[in-house]
Amino acid sequence: MDSAVIHYIAAGLTDRGRKRSTNEDAFAISAEQSLYVVCDGMGGAAAGEVASSNAVDEMVKNLKARNAESPVVEAAEQAIHAANNVIYTLAQRDSKLNGMGTTLVALVTEENRAWVLNVGDSRGYFMRAGRLEQMTIDHSLVEEQVRAGRMSAADALRSPLRNVITRALGTQSSVTPDVFPVDTEAGDLFLLCSDGLTRELSDDMLASILADDLPIGELCERLIAAANDAGGGDNITCVIVRAEA
Q: The pTM is what?
């Protein structure tokens, strides 16, 4: 059994894309708190930016305040609930923010254990030995239709309903994240990203870029550039985390 101590390095990048005038995505890398998070805000005017930035800030703040005896994954779930409450309360108090919300995908780590948590359709991927796997399940109307056998994956990509999210932070008084655990090994790679990346690039294209033996900051740059070259129809954000011995 491999007893090597695992640590994590990370890089992230966000881009407005080619067709949006503002960037409603937000991300944070907090290695000290073993937290990595990407949020994609939604709402009129600046509401999406308010939602995503508050979600990221609440995640970092709550993880910093966690009791050292508390499991990191439990602290992350509590932080998501706290972020949801902050965003929901702001939206209730200010009519200009009414209806705002944000997706969230986060990674927390503890030695050779990691957990990916998500709400919405921002995705978490896991790559080992060149094989890329989508860990998260999109909380979207078309994904539910695909899983129920009522729509093909190809039809889902073209559907005018593909932007309809069925679960988000801030749109309801409570929210439940999905949680996906994994035992990590040196060389494992995690990709957290907003749908501005995955709408433009297939999983095969993502895997091809991530397979290059490059610094993870450069991999982020290549992902963003490829998504923009493919159309850049939305804000694009990615965070890459690599496990190392």
A: 0.94
